[in-house]
Amino acid sequence: MDPQQRVLLELAYQAMDSSGYLGSHRRESGDPVGCFIGASFAEYLDNTSVHPPTAYTSTGTIRVFLCGKISYYFGWSGPSEVLDTACSSSLVAINRACKAIQTGECTMALAGGVNIMTGITNFLDLAKAGFLSPTRQCKPFDGAADGYCRSEGGGLILLKLLDQALAAGDHILGVIPSIATNLGGLSSSITIPHSSAQKKLYQTVLRQAGMKSDEVSYVEAHGTGTQARDPLEIASIREVFGGQSRIDLLNVGSLKGNIGHAETAAGVASLLKILAMINNGKIPPQASHKYLNPKIPALGADEMSIASKVNRWEAPLLAAYVISYGAGESNAAMICCEGPPPKTEVFKQMASAEAGSTYPIIISAASQESLYANADNLGRAAAL
After folding, report:
1. Cα dihedral value 157, 87, 67, 83, nearest 10
2. Helix, coil or strand: residue 182
3. Where is each Ketosynthase family 3 (KS3) domain found (predicted)?
4. What H or E segment, with its residue span, contains residue 35?
């Protein structure tokens, strides 16, 4: 079985457990929940192809089972789809999930992407094509940018309509007021982004959200750290979001400076970064960035900045723009902002209902003495 399937199954269980869904889940109910996964490479076939045929190789390597096994495990009846747009796959999958919920195809959706490297062939091919950095880490917007560093990862988020989440008293990590995709088909090369298409996408997402550009105070860029892509991306961001008329400073960053380029999982990784920023109220410094790429004009004149230290994220509304580009020119972008303050009466009701409840606690140990010691420690902690 492709390790990507196992990783996604683990992440799916963690996500659904974190959301509280498993507390009332019954597989036989066939809940109308959708599952949308962004994925591209099927490198594990390099390993299975050197072994004799088995009855499980197809279900262990065909990409449809990346989502199919998740939906089957939970007994879901909503759409279950794998989407491949190369590096923008996971954000395109989230877009598809949002649209499926809005049109009533499903009531909730689990969406994201995965990228686990289990073969060397794509490393060699990407290096021959000049994509990869010979000096390792991605250096977004930096003068020393010389290509990207491949990385592994996976991420999933659970989506539902805001009013339903509020009614259920869910812990809302963030809100997506708008998300969209388009294609940069008129670019100079199939692997080079088209600035005009990027700008049109940014404006479409803003229009759908009913927001102005200066209401966005952070842009999580694709930012792979390449000499060709980074200046084009900053130029399109500057034209739509920058300008001396901005009220708040626009910070720009890229997670790839921290963890490298997770390719088909890059978009959801960037979204998870934004959710962490929203819930901590802070803007982290841009990793692997020492000085601005000379091909990028100074940012200060247009009220833009790349953070060099941890700053408090202060704005009337914490709203970020997340961008993801695919090697085949498929662009995806979204706005993610803080959710409404929780209704205190709902949480008071939940707290009062739990006040008189008792719960079993399981304590384990390697010996009877350790068991008693663990129980004693737990008792002292509970009394604090």
Report:
1. 110
2. strand
3. 1-338
4. strand 33-38
